[in-house]
């Protein structure tokens, strides 16, 4: 990827920030962008990639729109468009950390800092330091004042070192690392009860409070790691993968019970701190973590998932009244509990005088969203709960509006702790640091409802 220039334009196409890195883009490039993106008709479908072909040569725009601004990258080479988009979004994150809101007035007020950030984040069109924690050590809003009084700011080693996302000399009184395995279940069920779509979106979120420059090694029970471990063990005359002395298991560390089954992950994405070469070699995840919270890894599984919370609704509509009979049951393992279950059921837009009777939890009418919400604080596995609701109905009403209300699906929210629907488990989490301190790793599993919909018809 080689970016020739970065422009920040206002809503009218006027240039607020212009930084050329390679000197191969004509000065009228923002005018070409304005003509092809900003001045086009509203019915024209806009894309984040725009190609310009001129007699003097061709180049490409890659841009994102934020509030009333256009953040534009220009390249004259066949660059990686996805990486350029990722850099622009990272640039927005960095600017947001220096300014409360990235708007036209804040860009004008902080243009000196923005130019300094661009010079540090990119060199000859190639991204360099992009971590806010590192940039904030030597670029501040007071940098010009410090230079005026002769204060020398020392450049941190992370700006030029291999670990640009972590500063040196970090100290914590209590060395701990927390790993959250969070999975969202997306489910779409038809009115007849058949499963139309199901997928699992997962991520591993790390909160690192470790001193020094620690090296972490993480093992999962995904299929690729198990296959690699089994091959290595068989080559050495062993019998496949085994446990580890530093395994993080159940009990006090919030883990889920170990399982022998492996999980085949798809669309795996890693944080930049992960050593990809080592992962490709032996399928282990090793990394030097940034300080604080970050997303280590994300993945997707497109597999058939049994709905964890099942909802049946029977609607009986009469001339002046409509009654609802709603049954909900959990399809979890015996020890699991679904917390904060919220079942959103659409109701007709002109109902009144709501009355509810629940075997557990509470129900309420939300007129601004034309729905009733049944809230169950704890829903244990194997239980079936019933809610009856009734509404008054005017004798005169718009049939089209009432018919559309019945087409809206039931949506469900819930959270199941200590459980992953995919079966993904952490086999071990090692922490190694040169000073030899003892670190405490903690692992937690959470399954949440994502786009969880059950159609009525």
From TrEMBL:
UniProt domain MHD: residue ranges: 174-455
InterPro entries assigned: Adaptor_comp_med_subunit (IPR050431), AP2_Mu_C_sf (IPR036168), AP_mu_sigma_su (IPR022775), Clathrin_mu (IPR001392), Clathrin_mu_CS (IPR018240), Longin-like_dom_sf (IPR011012), MHD (IPR028565)
Keywords, sorted A to Z: Membrane, Protein transport, Transport
Keyword Transcription regulation appears in the UniProt entry: no
Location of this chain's protein in the cell: Endomembrane system
Coiled coil: none
GO terms, biological process: intracellular protein transport; vesicle-mediated transport
Primary location group: membrane
Region called Disordered, residue ranges: 236-261
Any Gene Ontology CC annotation: endomembrane system
Family: Belongs to the adaptor complexes medium subunit family.
Name this polypeptide is given: MHD domain-containing protein
Taxonomic source organism: Porphyra umbilicalis (Purple laver)
